[in-house]
Amino acid sequence: MSSAGSATTRFSVPGHVVSEEVDGELVLLNLHTGIYFGLNQLGTFVWRSLQSHGDPDQAAVTVHARYPNVPVETIRKDVCDLVGELDSRGLLVRGEHA
C-alpha cells in the first residue's frame, strides 16, 4: 500500500461524516469542515467495504472478486488512492475508533 495505508492500517468513518445514496452513487459530507465528496458506483462499493472491514487490502480483494478481469495490483492502487483522498478530506480516519 502507499502512504495512505499499510497492510495493517485500518480506517473508520468518523461520526461527523454523513452520507446519502442516490441512484447507487454516494455523497459524503464532513459536518465539521463542510467538505463533501461524491463517489460513483464503484467508489460506493469500495466505501461500503471499508465501512464493513476498515481494511483497504480487504476492500481491494472484495472489488477484485467482483471485477476479476482487472489486475489486483491496479485495484489495490485505485483503492489506496481513494482511501488517501478520503483521509485527506477527513472523511475517513486511521484506526478503528473514530
Write the layout of secondary structure elements.
Blueprint: E1 11-12, E2 17-22, E3 25-30, E4 36-39, H1 41-53, H2 56-66, H3 72-88, E5 93-94
Antiparallel strand pairs: 1-5, 2-3, 3-4
Helix pairs in contact: 1-2, 2-3
Structure, briefly:
The protein is 42% helix and 20% strand.
Would you write up a description of this structure?
- The protein is of the alpha+beta class and 98 residues long.
- It is 42% helix and 20% strand.
- A 3-stranded antiparallel beta sheet has the order 2-3-4.
- A hairpin with a 5-residue loop joins strand 3 and strand 4 (36-39).
- Helix 1 (41-53) crosses helix 2 (56-66).
- The chain is globular and about 40 Å long.
- 23% of the residues are buried.
- Mean pLDDT is 88; it is low at 1-6.
Strand % is 15-25%
Give average pLDDT, whole number. 88
Percent in helix: 40-55%
The rough form would be described as globular
> What order do the SSEs take from the amino end to the carboxyl end, as H and E?
EEEEHHHE
Strand order of the largest sheet: 2-3-4
Pairing-aware structural class of the strands and helices?
A: alpha+beta
Largest sheet: 3 strands, antiparallel
Extended strand count? 5
Q: Radius of gyration in whole Å, from Cα?
A: 13 Å
Uncertain residue ranges: 1-6
Count of alpha and pi helical runs: 3
What is the straight-line distance between the termini?
22 Å
